[in-house]
Amino acid sequence: MFNKIVQFIFFGNYFVGLLAVALTIEATVQLRLPFNSLNYYLLLFFAPTIYYTYAYTKASTSLSSLNLRNTWYYNHRKFIAISQVVLIVLCGVLAVNLLYQNFNNILKLPFSYWVAIVIIITAGSMYYGLLPKSFINFNLRSTGWLKAFVIGFVWACCVNVLPLIMLKIETGIGYHDSVLWTWLFIKNWMFCTVNAIIFDIKDYPTDANKHLRTFVVRYGLRKTIFNILIPLLLVGLLSLAVFASYKGFGLPQVLCNVLPFILTLYVAYAMHKRKNILFYLIVIDGLILFKALCGILGMQFVK
Asked: In this structure, how many other beta carbons lie within 10 angstroms of the beta carbon of residue 284?
């Protein structure tokens, strides 16, 4: 029973929705801004769940005992089809409610906000090739090494840009500390990119067969860990040290922000041993939740 619940949460991508909300709350607390509405957080939870499930509904057309996730999707294909429809309807209702309550504020959004919205929607759509092929026949998932950076960019936009846009719409409040915002955006971008590269290790055999030149396919497992993952995380730690010194972070706040990098370094080093799919979903995605919780905790030590 417990195993079925775990598979439902992680294979069903509900944990991904939780990550989106957790990272958004972390960014909001770190920027010392008011929270968005419950309506927005519900929409933020459901939308990524639908978005990530979309990719696996196509992979669930045949039973494969070699892929536990595909097998789960195949066995629950009717439930997935119904749940996708239900979640899309819920998202539609939530979106219409936001539009109805804030229609005039949306029309008054500054031009720069609309540019950000277009960039986010375009990147997210091109990632799964959702745009009409007659318009642009390009799928960012097929670009190999670029894929991880695109995933990180979309996540950073969702948790560092969208909340500011919604805050402007719902309350009229803007944000002007560009230095802190830029650092937090880049930190989330790079952390989620590293997380995506680690996750590519899971897909190594499939990506290699499809000639998808991800880092692990191009350079091999060991070089990816020691020449890409660990250096990126060390650069992240260095930038954290510099920024913490610049902003005058206290020791407890520094430690809270360092812990996710150290744990990710450990997990990256341990990746030379192959793991099952649930390990990747629970432990590797769990690093993102751990980062969000540490970021929130760190702000409790700020006077």
From this structure: 21
Look up the pTM and report it: 0.87
What DSSP character marks residue 61? Answer: S
In DSSP notation, 72-129 reads HHHHTHHHHHHHHHHHHHHHHHHHHHHHHHHHHHHHT--HHHHHHHHHHHHHHHHHTT
Instruction: Please give the chain's pLDDT, 303 residues, in tens.
Output: 777 888 888 888 999 999 999 999 999 998 889 999 999 999 999 999 998 888 776 654 555 455 778 788 888 888 999 999 999 999 999 999 999 999 999 988 888 889 988 888 887 776 655 544 444 555 555 555 677 888 888 899 999 999 999 999 988 888 777 788 888 888 888 889 888 888 777 666 566 555 566 777 777 777 888 888 888 888 888 878 877 777 777 888 888 888 998 898 888 877 777 677 788 788 888 999 999 999 999 888 876
Both tokens of 223, joined, read: 């070089």
Q: Which two tokens stand for residue 72?
A: 């789960």
Q: How many helices (H) and strands (E) does the chain have?
A: 16, 0
The DSSP output letter for 299 is H
Sign of CA dihedral 12, 116, 160, 216: positive
Q: For the chain, what is the radius of gyration of the CA atoms?
A: 20
* Cα–Cα dist 131/122, whole Å: 8
Q: Report the amino acid identity of residue 294.
A: C
Burial 126-139, CB ≥16 within 10 A → b, else e: bbeeeeeeeeeeee
